Amino acid sequence: MIVCFDIGGTAIKGALAMSPEDIRPFPRKPTPIHDFDAFVATLASVIAEAESLAGGRPACIAISIAGVIDPDTANAVVANIPCIHGRPLQADLATALGLPVIIANDADCFVLAEAGIGAARGHRVVFGVILGTGVGGGLVIDGKLINESGFAGEWGHGPIQPTEAGTPPIHVPRFQCGCGQIGCIDAICSARGLEKLHRHIHAKQLTSEEIITNWQAGDAKAERTIDVYVDILADPLSVVVNVTGTTILPVGGGLSNVPELLARIDTALRKRILRKFKSPIVVQAACGVEPGLIGAAILGLDFASEHQGG
To answer: Within the chain, which residue ranges are assigned CATH 3.30.420.40?
Structure first.
């Protein structure tokens, strides 16, 4: 057995994992964002609960976190949790907790969950897509996460946004992205990006929820925004499909909760890729509850199996 965590800036979710299908969550605990000792103590308290419940020591600790581990420095890049930002987190936690520690980005854990027990189960090559506060993703092949650099799967970043899109085409500005570049897909196809796009086209500020609601109700302005949005999104996503050879793209994040939008993206995408699929490949994620914990559990259980001979 292992102990897995899904750590965000507000809450730490912990669980005892016996298998990907047998994950036993504990109550959430507030994240101590400014005190590393308190942060470690919170994790240790969950581990102690797991040990009491399971009657033994876990093989390892697996963590899903909204950040990355810099492959060159081994330091964590987690801006919303200052007490771990810039630290060699894996080494520090392993020392403090006395157990092996595996850490993965939350998007990577999402795709591991979908490939393991979710909508992509049975597919060899799975590219998971996040469409929400940001645009992200991850790649799993034969059940293994492909992320040696710590940054693989980040298709939302890179200055590739077109300056014309839609039918008929209109000019689209290249927005500033939080990563420091201009013209990233993340800056225009995230939920906030959808709002910026609508404001540019119609000079009206609406929330992404309002835009989607208006579009579903047949509003012509919202339809125009979605037309441009999907046209922008489908191009880089088609490159992802052609390069990776994925046969399915499970989608998570807030915008994934709109089946009509996923169907629209799927239709546009399948017209632009080399391999022709008769059935949809852009699908709603199945692990809607705790994908971070599930993905971390899969990662940790694989590690335990490899290092303990099963």
So the answer is: 2-105+291-308, 119-284
Q: Is the pLDDT of residue 309 over 70?
A: no
Convert the pLDDT of each residue in 89-135 to its tens digit.
999 999 999 999 999 988 999 999 999 999 999 999 999 999 998 99
Angle, CA 26 vertex, CA 291 and CA 122 arms, to 5°: 25
Distance (Å, whole) CA 256 – CA 285: 8
What's the pLDDT tens digit per position in 123-166?
999 999 999 989 999 999 999 999 866 678 899 999 999 999 99
Band of the pLDDT at 310, cuts 50, 70, 90?
very low
Cα radius of gyration rounded to whole Å, the chain: 20
C-alpha to C-alpha distances, 8 to 20, 32, 153, nearest whole angstrom: 21, 10, 20
- Kindly give the pairing relationship between strand 125-131 and strand 249-252: parallel
Choose among 238, 228, 168: nearest CA to 194.
228
CATH no. of 119-284: 3.30.420.40
Contacts by 42-46, CB closer than 8 A, 24 or more apart: 42/12, 43/5, 43/12, 43/14, 43/93, 43/97, 44/96, 44/97, 46/3, 46/5, 46/12, 46/14
**DSSP state letters, 126-150:** EEEEEESSSEEEEEEETTEE--SSS
